Amino acid sequence: MTEKSKGSLLALLDGAHTFRQTEYNGEHPLMARLSRGQDPDVLIIACSDSRVDPALIFGARPGDIFVVRVVANLVPPRSDGDFMAHAVMAAVEYGVKALGVSHVVACGHSHCGGIKAAMDAARGQEPPPFECLGPWVALADGACREVVTEGSGGERTDAETATAAEQRSVLRSLANLRSYAWIQDRVEKGDLALHGWWFDIDTGELWTANSETGVFSVAA
Predict the structure, then answer these.
(1) pLDDT by residue (tens digit) across 26-64?
(2) Do 199 and 172 contact (CB within 8 A), yes or no?
C-alpha cells in the first residue's frame, strides 16, 4: 500500500473523529436527535461519482435527504424477478413507503462515466471489460440511442451530445419510476412529486427539467 493510500484512509478516520466531536457533543447535538429516527422529505437518486456528493452540493445536513447512489443515477423499470432492479428500488421503496418522502429527484451530472459507457455501446463500440458495469449501464441504452440518432447530422458538439445523453437518461429514469404503481399512485394523488435535475461539474450550475416539456434550464 502506498503512502498516498494510507494517507487517504487516515484522513477518513480523522474525519470520523471530527464528526463525532462536532455532532455528538454540545448543548443540542444533531446526531442525538437523529438517533431517535429520521424524517427526510426529499429522496435523491444520484450517481456514485466521487465528485457529486448530494449533501455537499445542496448544503444538506444529516437527516435532510434520503440518498440512493448508483452508477449513472439510473432507475430500472419495473420487471418481475429482476434483482438488479430490486437493488435500487428497495431503497426508493423504503423512502416512499416507510419514510413518506414528498419529493423524489433523479439527479444526473456532467462528465458521467456511466453514461459515456452507454453512449459508446449505443455507437457500436465494445462494452467496458467489467462483469457488472456493462449490463447495468445498458439501462441507458434507449436514451443514448435516441441522442445518437438525433445527432447524426453533426449539429452537436461532443460536449453537447454528452450533456443531451445525461439529461435524456434522467428523463428516462423519471419514466421508469412511474412504472411502479406505488409511485404513480402517489403522484396522481398529489402526495409525491418527481423531479429531474442535472449538475454541471464545470460551472457548478444546477439544471432542472420542466415537468411538462422535459426541457432542462438553469435553476441555480
Answers:
(1) 777 889 889 999 999 999 999 999 999 999 999 999 999
(2) no
